[in-house]
Amino acid sequence: MIDYVRQYYLDKDKIESFVTDKENFEELYTVLEYHSGEISYPFTANIGSMEIRINDKLVSVMNSIHKLYNELKENKSHNHNDFSYSAICETIDYLGSKLVDLRKTRLTQLEFGLNIRLPMPAEFVIKENISLHKLEIHNHNEQFNGRGEYKQFNHYNYYFKIYDKAKQFNLNENVIRFEIKYKRNKGFNPLGAFNIYDLKNKQVLKALFGDMLKRFDELTIIDNIPSDSTISVEDRKSLESYLSFNFWDKLSLRGNRNIKSIEVKKFEKLLVKNDLLKTKTFLRASLIKKFNELLDS
């Protein structure tokens, strides 16, 4: 569920003196001017994969708490397995035991996502079935040097990502990940997340999942059309238009907004009529099932 977090301390002086104390952190990295020997910011220290960064204005703690948990349990830094509610709580408490006043920090960035298993390779679903988000084309489409498909849709307050988790980590199963990364706290503060300890609140996690599911619903995901399909030629031509980003981009112009809403409804009816939403229905149900399993464990 929860992955990357970025938070900052309101009281810089107290945490800086704590982190720079050798009894608390044996290793502290700084910038050293070679000739004068002058030490300057930033200072950095680590709790596993979590980085503490101190500059002249603030102190930040950032990285994946999911990876931190796996480092503690398996001595391996990865996030391809499930991250349950109890594991989230345990990791936050551990981080709090290694720092002072963690409850006084403020979250500035946050990632929420779920891994679900598929009966087919995730790269096929990402490449063939997932096309648009909010009727806009992806901003990034990468293959990680042959390690699976990755699509990212950039929006003002968040990124929505879909990628092949199995290929990324060379897993012997098919795993796809859906993830929302909030770029600013205004995206998750209304959901009740202000401090990392709020992520131990199940109601907050439910709100975060609800927001991710809303973003999922905004994806255009349609089934592959077999060569022997009985879909009419007219419907095929309409689908070809609706799956084109250029079609929706032109309708997004100020003078075409009323037309766009009409075409959206026609597109939705066309997908239902030709029974092309089985993949999306399966993925949505799998996300809900996975979230409920993790929240109860």
How many whole angstroms does the radius of gyration measure?
23 Å
How many individual domains? 1
Structural class comes to: alpha+beta
| DSSP E strands, number | 13
Q: How many individual helices?
A: 10
Uncertain ranges: none
Major sheet size, sense and barrel closure: 10 strands, antiparallel
- SSE topology string: EHEEEEHHEHEEEEEHEHEHHHH
Shape: elongated
Spatial gap, N to C terminus: 12 Å
* Strand order within the widest beta sheet: 2-3-4-5-1-6-12-11-10-9
Share in helix: 25-40%
Strand content: 25-35%
Look at the structure and give the mean pLDDT: 93
Short description:
The protein has helices spanning 12-19, 65-74, 85-98, 122-129, 165-168, 202-217, 233-242, 245-251, 257-273, 278-295, and strands spanning 2-9, 29-32, 39-47, 50-54, 59-64, 105-117, 130-133, 136-137, 140-142, 150-154, 158-164, 175-182, 219-221.
Q: Can you give a write-up of this model?
A:
This protein is an alpha+beta fold and 297 residues long. The protein has one domain (2-223, 277-295). 38% of the residues lie in helices and 26% in strands. The chain contains ten helices and 13 strands. It has helices spanning 12-19, 65-74, 85-98, 122-129, 165-168, 202-217, 233-242, 245-251, 257-273, 278-295; strands spanning 2-9, 29-32, 39-47, 50-54, 59-64, 105-117, 130-133, 136-137, 140-142, 150-154, 158-164, 175-182, 219-221. The strands form two sheets. It has a ten-stranded antiparallel beta sheet with strand order 2-3-4-5-1-6-12-11-10-9. Strand 2 and strand 3 (39-47) form a beta hairpin. The radius of gyration is 23 Å and the shape is elongated. The model has no long low-confidence stretch (mean pLDDT 93).
